[in-house]
Amino acid sequence: LGRPGVDCYCQHESGAAVLQLQFLINEGALVSACADDALHLWNLRQKRPAVLHSLKFNRERITYCHLPFQSKWLYVGTERGNTHIVNIESFILSGYVIMWNKAIELSTKTHPGPVVHLSDSPRDEGKLLIGYENGTIVFWDLRSKRADLRAYYDEAIHSVAWHHEGKQFMCSHSDGSLTLWNLKNPNRPFQTTIPHGKIQRDGKKPESCKPILKVEYKTCKNSEPFVIFSGGLSYDKPCRRPSLTIMHGKAITVLEMDHPIVDFLTLCETPYPNEFQEPYAVVVLLEKDLIVVDLTQSNFPIFENPYPIDIHESPVTCTEYFADCPPDLIPVLYSVGAKHKKQGYSNKEWPIIGGAWNLGAQTFPEIIITGHADGSVKFWDASAITLQMLYKLKTSKVFEKQKVGEGKATAEIVEEDPFAVQMMYWCPESRIFCVAGVSAYVIIYRFSKHEVNTEIASLEVRLQCEVEDIITPEPETNPPFPDSSSQLPSLKSLSGSTNTVACEGTMKDSIPCLNVKARPVRMPPGYQADLIIQLVWVDGEPPQQITSLAVNSAYGLVAFGNCNGLAVVDFMQKTVLLSMGTLNLYGSSDPYQRQPRSPRKSRQFAADNFCMRGLSNFYPDLTKRIRTSYQSLTELSDSPVSLELERCKSPTSVKGSRKLSLPTDLKTDL
Length: 670
Prior knowledge:
The chain is mainly β and 670 residues long. It has 7 helices and 38 strands.
């Protein structure tokens, strides 16, 4: 990653996990160490980065690598405790190996474990500090091929960091402690602290904490040094989020993260390890994000991230793409999006500034909209090479927060993420925006540049599909399809009535899955909820998820449907215009009740019943769509109703043909 808009992507052919990365600073190259025990040297100076050299370790597992600034030697530590040295120019092993038994000699009686740290002394690049997992530290003289000193601590080491003068170093340990060592007295650390440990009343050692996985020790010319570490929190707070701790003098600041910390790196004014480091920022790589903390301000604000790394901050559930949008749309969305951004960001420029950015070849504006599992919607500018987030909308804000134990209301529809966005509609010209959510609701949004404080209008729609298990109606007594005047029949499905579960002693009916906020809601500039339409429970059965959505912004209409039926709503008048079950849509009755056009009006009713009876016999499962094609109807020619079907022919058809047009030519006048 470089300056905003600059990034490149490359992948190892082996597909092995990447353990560690080391830049050849100011040389346009990168070393990667992978889980298959291979080292790779990448050339970053060409347009498409490529591997120049690779080196595979066959007998040992790689655990840690270190490449000193402006050095041609790459130090590689292994699981066996040995340290190998690779020539970075030829990318072959030099033959110089620091064997673990030579390094520790008789300081411990057991194997010291894998190499967990390697670093050269800031004062002398010919001396190497080796940290072993079991707590052993060796200061190795590369020229004389012997250890200058050895130190031992009874807690496992996770990382080591030098003071820039090269006289002291700091270690982080598995018990949440930090130890500070002096090269002149390696027998024991001259300072031991457990930053997050509780101090015992009887003066004993503070209680142990979680391991400190990494520590960095950075000095400043005009202030106290910075000690920055990840982990090390107390065990008695298991619900605390992953944290980065910054110690500056006597002040300790804990920054809680939204995701687990993978690694962090302190950005300093100089690459030379023997100068005052002057740290100004910390880059923290999280499992699902990348953040940069400003160290120059006392409250340690984060920088506003220009990269689209958080596109999956919440899982993407649907997307829409729009090309050649009105030219004023992207600036308008960006301006309202900028006002929504959280306060407290650093006022400084993004500190990662490498590379040169060129605009893409396309000049027309492109916008991508992503809907997410948490109910958020993000508008992205896709006109350039990389995505730039313009505006974020949280659809869940129109609903009341669910209290503990109330989540069962939507459990029949979704087990989690009740606000997940399923479908979206957007009209770039009128700026009308509509979303359909997983909990059977539709929200209409209007765009406004002004803040409002108002109540949210809502409608409830009852969509129900009711079919008897066995339908064998007689035309004289039971019309097979319900009367069109009762578009939502009240008879319960025989198949659904046996397994309906009562909730708290009462059957749920005519209630939505989520509660809309009843009080006035403050809506900032941007997209503001104009109308919420919710499907309701019917006779103890939850509403089915919405499967189709269409909007006509010119007429102010929204239509949506599911397996149970279709609804059309006028969102200008906030009125339900049409609500029909699936059977009614495919039945012989017309929702608009036009009069039949057949000249045989006296016999039309009987003909309709015979005709639909024949179709119902042909389709025992009436939840399927009734198809009235020529092939379907000719298969009924041998049935007793074939004569009546002949009489139901359209008056415009040619004599002798069996073509039947439904439902425009067959109307039931009930």
